[in-house]
Structures are given as C-alpha cells and as structure tokens.
Design a protein that fits this description.
Layout lengths: L18 E12 L4 E11 L4 E6 L2 E10 L2 E4 L2 E3 L8 E6 L4 E10 L6 E4 L11 E4 L20 E8 L5 E4 L12 E10 L6 E4 L2 E4 L4 E5 L1 H10 L3 H12 L7 E5 L8 E2 L4 E4 L12 H8 L7 E3 L5 H19 L2 H18 L25 H18 L1 H14 L3 E3 L1 H13 L8 H9 L13 H14 L14 H9 L7 H11 L7 H13 L6 H10 L3 H14 L1 H11 L5 H8 L5
Parallel strand pairs: 1-11, 16-17, 17-19, 20-21
Antiparallel strand pairs: 1-2, 2-8, 3-7, 4-5, 4-8, 6-7, 9-10, 10-14, 11-13, 12-14, 15-16, 18-19
Helix pairs in contact: 2-3, 2-4, 3-4, 4-5, 4-6, 5-6, 5-11, 6-7, 7-8, 8-9, 10-11, 11-13, 13-15, 14-16, 15-16, 15-17
The structure holds zinc ion (ZN).
Length: 591
C-alpha cells in the first residue's frame, strides 16, 4: 500500500490546497554522523486541515503548527515508504496556522547528499558535503513540497566545523570568513529541486563583476583559467534573452565524484572537475548551466513529464551562447556531435520514451533523463528557428522567458504559445502536425534540421586517408579542437584492428589524455575492440572520476567484454561514487 500521489505524479504534496511560500532552514552539519540536524520552518499560503509534504529517510523530531506566533505541538504522521517516492508526511493544521516547524535529521544514506571523506576530495585534507536535489532528492534532506510546481523563497542558517565554508543556491558573500556559521537568503522563488548546499575546504576567486569561482585550493587556479569566459557568456545570454535576474552567478567545482556534468543551482552552478581540460574547450557546460538561468530556473517544467521544456530549451540556448562567444563552426560541431550521439543511442531508448512529452507516472523521473529531452528538444527549437528565421523566432523565444518568468509550464503551454506567436502569426511556414511530430512521436521526424559541420569533413578525410594505408604522421591535426578529436575517434570503424589503435595511441597519446571527453571516447573504442593496452588507464579513470555520463557506459561495455575485470575495478571505484551513480552502475555490474 502506498499513499496517493498529487497533481504531480512524483509528489504527495497537497499543493492545490496549501502551498509553501517560504522555507527557513536551521541546520548543523555533522560530518562524524553524516547528518544534517535541525529544523525547517515553512510559511504557508492557503488553508487546509493538513499539510502534506514529501520526505525520504528522515528522522523526525517535534513538529509544531504556528498560530498567531504561538508554537503548538501538532500531529505528524509518516506513511509507509515507497522505494521511488519516499514517505508522505501529513501534518495536522489547526485553524489559523500559517507556519509549521519540523525538527528533523537526515540519515547517512540520504539520496540527495553525498558525504565525502577527505581521501575523496582533490586536496585530501578535509571532508566535503554536497547536495544533488534534482529530480526528487530534495525530500531526503528537507521535508518539503518536492514538486517543481511549487516555488518558494528560502533563508538558512548553517553551522559547520570551523575552517569549512558552506555555500548554498542563494546569496553567497564571497568575503565570508570560514568561521563555521553562515546565513543565506534566496529572494527569488525557486522550486525544491534547486535547493542546494555544499560544505568543504573551498576558496573563492573572482571571474568578473558579478561572477566568480569556488573550488578546493589546489583546483582554484586551473578552474579560474578554464572558466574565464563566464562573464562574457552572461552578457551574451542577456543580449539574446533579456536580463539575468538572479544577482550573482558563481561556479562551484565539486570533487570528481559529482555524478553530473553540472547542476544549475541558482546563483551557484555546481560543476564536475572533468570539464577542466586546460584549454577551455569544454566550456559549453558553463553555457549550458548559465542558460538554465532562463530555461528551467526562470521558466520551469511543471512536472518531470515536461522535462524537455527545461533541457531542450537549455541545450538550444547553450548552443546559441557558444556560437556568439566563439563562432558558428564550433557551435555546428558541438551540435552535430550531439545529434550523432542521439541517433546512435536511440535504439536503447524505449519507443514511448522517445517522445518529448513523457508519461513517467509510477516511475523514477530520472528515467526521463535521456538525450531525447536535451537534443531532440533542442532540435524542435532548431526546426522553428530554421523555418521562421531568427528575426522572427528569437523575439518569440525571449517572450517565452519574459511571459513565463518565475512560473511553471507544460508542453501544452508551449504548443499554444507556438501556435499563437509563430504558426498563426506567419501562416504557411510550419504546421501544428510538424511540431507535434517531435512532441508525441518516437524517433526524429523527417523534417528535423540536421547539422553538417564543415570542419568535420576535413577530419573525416584525414581519418579515411590514414585508414587506406596512409602514414599517421600525415594527419594534420595541428589546428584541431576537442570537437574535431571527438569526431576523429568516434568515426573510427567498428572493426578497426588493435594494431591500428596502438599506432594512433603512440602518435596521439589518447590513453593519457587529460581531456576527459577525448579520453572517454578513446576508452569506449578500446573496450569495444578489447584493446588491453588501454585497460590500466581505463581502471585509473574509473577510480578517479564518478561522473555518470562516463562511468556508466564504460562499465556497461566492460562488463560485457570482461565481467571479472569490470567487477574488480568497480569494487575499487564504488566507495568513491555518488549514490546516484552507484544505483546506475549497480544495475549493470552484477555480482
Ligand atoms: Zn541541463
């Protein structure tokens, strides 16, 4: 028996009756016990006999309802635990209650928190804590209406051991001393999945007027160099889509176990260190997370079924920022790489999950986290852009952000908007059916605009010339960027001989590449061809990096090729992985 879910299929909250307007957190960070302990006070709009919240694996203490400033103990009931959705918490609300205070502690296994011992950090001196709340993990560290449909402001007082710095997805003062007592305020209303906290030995370096970077001391200089273009990207995005509405934009580089590339926590993007390539070639990730300041954070998918409204828009905006910050060739190359990856991965995605509009009822919303939402979503916007032209399309996209700012949207809202502002406004250019083909049909519609990056043709010629018996020394790669290298490696034939891989490795040192994307592409090839020479390097990579995008496919392929080796490496790597990454790899590397 599980409790009934609400208007959001991934939340129990009764937000149609009563809504959280503000959350005030008071938490102590206990690294020894791996717990956050304290309380949250929720300010409510609306009235109902009870307030229903989402929780997972929380230890509850006293719960108060507050009537006219008077704290009254009230009844709080936890329902049975659902493995995906957690535990529904029902709190009795006496007449006139406009706030509740919930005392609680998190558990060490909280799915939204990772507690790292010093060995798992870059500097190996202090422990580290960080959160990852998207999609439905905020409930494992704050009892809350854990649905993107509800926006609230928040404040927080966070106590940590002295010497460690706490940061949140809120106003952070770069001048804060690491005295172990921090206060935060988030004035703009956000959905729960953007609640974020990190605590560690973190230092700050400014990047511009309103942007800067936080990282462990040994990483700070390299990170500041890598992301020096941040301020310029903010200006570009503002020119395209209107003002940046969140005050500061800072970046926080996390330890290598961070499961994702980045997380768009407002005011403070969380980043994997694997994008620090030394040559600023992987900064499209910054463009992506920054783009979320419009798509996702400002205009938010109402439920996870409409995740493409967050990620497809963001992937589109990311590519526009890259084009303006660098040039169209680079934007084309990045887009074509994504399109190739989408098409290659399509057969592994269930047909019904190839739609932009998903039906994730009863399922973990992370199931929707595929290239469909990102790349197919981007391609729908590209379709509109190419048909209507930028002079018509760009103002419409900007209007989407302006008119829905600090609101939530569903796919139908998008369809109505496009119909009014484009299809009907400029008749005869595109049809509703053509748009719907992206939204409710599998695969890519025939009318999808596909990218052919001019510079990739030269890469293909160089690769093919060598494959026909040429000298690898004749491959002129002196001007190649990361994107061209990826094209080169990914285009190697499926039956390439191990000797040929060895020749390339000797010449280009792919095995020991410090560029995580290039190394990953090479390792995938090496595993596929059982090129054992590369396996020690693969083992080192997998035990150093916990980004799921890399480790999940590598372990999947390794397990198929050499299960024993995969098990041995995973046993070593697993303790350093994030719970999200572990859950994914556990399903693949079976005992
Ligand atoms: Zn994103």
């Amino acid at each position: 028996m599980t409790a009934a879910l609400s208007a959001d299929p991934h939340s129990y909250a009764n937000f149609s009756d009563v809504r959280v307007r503000h959350a005030e957190l008071d938490l102590t960070v206990d690294f020894d016990q791996k717990r956050l302990q304290g309380f949250v006070e929720l300010t409510l709009d609306g009235a109902a006999p009870e307030l229903i919240l989402d929780t997972r694996d929380l230890d509850l203490g006293k719960v108060y309802a507050i009537v006219d400033g008077d704290y009254r103990l009230t009844r709080a009931t936890l329902a049975q635990r659902d493995p995906i959705f957690g535990q529904k918490l029902s709190i009795a609300l006496p007449e006139g209650a406009d706030r509740v205070r919930i005392h609680y502690a998190t558990r060490p296994e909280a799915s939204g928190l990772q507690w790292l011992s010093p060995e798992l950090t870059a500097d190996k001196r202090q422990p580290f804590l960080f959160s990852q709340s998207q999609a439905i993990h905020a409930r494992s560290w704050v009892p809350i209406q854990d649905t993107p449909a509800v926006r609230f402001t928040y404040g927080a007082r966070i106590r940590t051991p002295k010497g460690l710095l706490a940061r949140m997805s809120a106003e952070n003062d770069p001048l804060d001393a690491a005295d172990g007592d921090y206060r935060f305020l988030m004035r703009q209303p956000i959905p729960s999945y953007l609640l974020a906290i990190a605590v560690g030995d973190i230092k700050f370096a400014p990047l511009g007027e309103r942007s800067g970077i936080y990282a462990e001391p040994s990483v700070l200089d390299a990170a500041a160099y890598e992301f020096a273009d941040t301020e310029r990207m903010i200006e570009i995005a503002e020119k395209l889509y209107g003002p940046y509405r969140w005050g500061r934009y800072d970046l926080l580089v996390l330890p290598p176990s961070f499961p994702f590339g980045g997380m768009e926590n407002p005011r403070l993007t969380f980043l994997t260190p694997t994008v620090i390539a030394g040559d600023r070639s992987l900064v499209s990730l910054i463009a992506h997370e920054l783009a979320h300041s419009w798509s996702g954070n400002l205009v938010t998918n109402a439920t996870w079924d409409h995740f493409w409204l967050n990620e497809g828009f963001t992937t589109y905006v990311e590519n526009r920022i890259i084009e303006a910050a660098f040039d169209a060739e680079r934007a084309d190359m990045e887009r074509e790489l994504s399109e190739t990856e989408l098409v290659a991965g399509m057969p592994e995605i269930a047909t019904s999950d190839q739609h932009l509009r998903l039906d994730l009822r009863g399922r973990d919303p992370d199931d929707g986290l595929t290239d469909i939402a990102y790349t197919k979503g981007m391609l729908l916007l590209r379709f509109l852009e190419t048909r209507f032209g930028r002079e018509r399309f760009d103002p419409v996209l900007r209007a989407w952000f302006d008119e829905n700012a600090f609101g939530t949207v569903k796919t139908d809202d998008f369809l109505v908007f496009v119909e009014q502002k484009l299809l009907n406004a400029y008749p005869g250019i595109a049809t509703h059916t053509e748009v719907l083909a992206f939204v409710d049909q599998p695969a890519l519609p025939e009318h999808t605009p596909r990218t052919t990056a001019a510079r990739f043709a030269a890469v293909d010629r160089a690769r093919n010339g060598w494959l026909r018996g040429g000298d690898p020394a004749a491959i002129d790669s002196s001007q190649w960027t990361t994107q061209e290298w990826l094209r080169f490696i990914e285009g190697l034939p499926g039956d390439i001989a191990i000797e040929q891989l060895a020749v390339l490795d000797a010449r280009f040192k792919f095995q020991s590449s410090g560029n995580s994307e290039i190394a990953f592409a090479w390792y995938a090839k090496a595993i596929d061809r059982n090129y054992r020479d590369a396996f020690p390097a693969i083992e080192r990579f997998l035990t150093r990096v916990g980004r799921r995008k890399f480790v999940l496919p590598l372990f999947t392929d390794l397990f198929a090729k050499d299960a024993e080796f995969a098990r041995r490496v995973y046993a070593k790597a697993r303790p350093g992985y994030h719970p999200i990454t572990r859950a994914s790899v556990d399903a693949v590397v079976r005992p």
